[in-house]
Amino acid sequence: MDRTAWLELPPEARSAAEAYTSTVEYAETAETGVMSRLACTLHTTTGRVFVKGTRSDEPAAWMYEYEARVTRVAPLAPRVLWQVDAGGWLLTGYEYVFGLHPDLVPDRPTSAP
After folding, report:
1. CA distances from 110 to 32, 35, 106 (A)
2. Contact 65, 57 (CB under 8 A)
3. Which of 7-16, 69-78, 90-99, 100-109 has the lowest mean pLDDT?
4. Which has the closest alpha carbon to 7: 32, 31, 33, 25?
5. 43/96 Cα distance (integer angstroms)
6. What pLDDT is attached to residue 112?
7. Torsion of CA 102, 106, 108, 113, to 10 degrees
8. Going by DSSP bridges, is the β-strand pair 24-29/38-44 parallel, antiparallel, or unpaired?
9. 56/62 Cα distance (integer angstroms)
10. Contacts of 88 (CB under 8 A, 6+ apart)
11. Could you tell me the pLDDT band of residue 49, with boundaries at 50, 70 and 90?
12. Measured between alpha carbons, how far is 24 from 68 in angstroms, rounded to an integer?
């Protein structure tokens, strides 16, 4: 899936997110992962936040709502900080947690047990 960069989002979507994050100084688009049209780390005046999302009219948009609901009750998952639907985009902000993207190939050092 082609990624959409933060600055390519409609101004309404960015403004709605910034109501929760504070001013975005710059954004880093995630290089890994396959599901999210938007996946980026926002560097804001109050810290970092991970944001993922998709266009609201995408057939798979329901998965983002469901993921946020599940993540809110998952004890070891990064916290869901907010979710907005604005400018035609459904965006979810997560607590920023530094880490490497897991290698899920069996018997690799970073694979799940």
Report:
1. 15, 20, 9
2. no
3. 100-109
4. 25
5. 10
6. 47
7. 70
8. antiparallel
9. 9
10. 10, 12, 13, 55, 56, 57
11. very high
12. 22
Q: Chain centroid to CA 69: how far? A: 14
- 86 vs 51: CA distance, rounded Å: 14
Specify the higher pLDDT residue, 102 or 32: 32
pLDDT of amino acid 98: 81
Centre a 10 Å sphere on the Cβ of residue 109 and count the other Cβ atoms it contains: 5
Give the whole-angstrom CA distance, residue 78 versus residue 100: 14
Using the Cα atoms of residue 91, residue 94, residue 98 and residue 99 in order, give the sign of their dihedral: negative
